[in-house]
Design goal:
Radius of gyration: 20 Å
Strand content: 5-15%
Structural class: alpha/beta
Distance between the termini: 40 Å
Number of helices: 15
Strand order of the largest sheet: 3-6-9-12-13-14-15-16
Largest sheet: 8 strands, parallel, barrel
Length: 443
Amino acid sequence: MKNNAVNKLLKALGESTKLKRNDYSNYIAFHGVGNAYSKRWLGNIVPADLLKLTVKEAVEIIATLSESNIFYDKFPDYIGTPVYGDKWGRLANYIEINDRAIAVMDNGCTCKGILSCIKLLPAIPPSAKSFANCIILSQIWQNIYGDAYEKGPFEENSIYGLRLNTSYSDNIIDYSIVDKITPEEQLKAFVDLAHFRGIKVGFRHVISADQIKIARPYRDDEIFNWQNPEHVEIYITECVKLMNLGFECMFIDSAKHIGGYDMANYTGVGALPEYHQMQYILNEIRSRTGKTNISFVGEKSSDDFERYRLMGLNAGTDFITGDNFEAVRDLSERLKYYRDYAPGVEVTNDNNEGGLSYEQKLNRINSALFGYYLASDKLPSFMQMNDLFPLRYDTSTHHLMMTNPSYSTDGTALSHFENLFAKDDGRYYNKCAGELFARALEK
């Protein structure tokens, strides 16, 4: 019997695996323009529209929006990743979702972030004809301090610190059902549903040694050491596990500084891997998984392009913002023969503290999606959850990476979902962003 993670999740939640078409979603869905008309998603929304649903309802919407227009009344046993070749990462749109921020906040605890990601999937535009969209999850592993706990809006609870050699984050996994479905299978269910939507999936993590700990049973955690072969092996093994679940992209924080490069601008804490060591690590991950199509993305790997290509990266951030459409198109033209690696267009990044107008962000998305002469020459692009679903006025992407507050006004998870994001203006913005993606999907 095949191990269908989606059906196993539904059973673990006490649901039937028989799916029913969601006619309302079918009616209101956005469509791609022209030849991409069969590509559909839910635009003109605020996230609470979906986060208030059950997982079963979200799966039924995902099945309803099938690009093939075939409705599966039971989720298929096998779903492959969307096929865009081994070098897909060189052209992709990367959209980071802070899965902790949209997790369930309940009695001071944070949990079930991966289930919230499943619910949000229908609102992520599918991939275009020539280039993939890839969701990057902000958190997979446990964070060092305060994992699973909500804290005040100005109390530090940073995602930029992680524990390896243990299970996955309590913020993300639904540990109330692990007797019925393992943490790995919960992650696999999300990956399969994303692939069904035509979307690739990756994860972000830090590599600064003093921001990583190795968990030990019945002992204190150890600070990570890149000179310790056992620690390096644990790091590789943890990455391989995720790739074997169907993840296919790693977003590597502080990748620019690997090997001691430009350390005057390094803001992480602790040592980084050596250059040749990182080459070895990335090659080992590809080799051990047997996957030739993994995309390795480096934060701020944006000046010595050949250095990052030879390291094994496929894309890098923080080179050009997208404010100037012509500059993006010119860079695309200059780099069109670089098929293994290219720096990308940032709409915003994880350090963004707000302040950009909706008009400026939409202009950057337009540059990211259309800044080329030929779609095959497109630059990679990088967006945050906030660039599709605007956050409330008094928080920001970076604030939510550093802290874990609840914005609930009545103590319920639904109130947090409703108040974390902008409301009527956020819905209108999402509609405008959706119209840009609709035009890009046939490229």
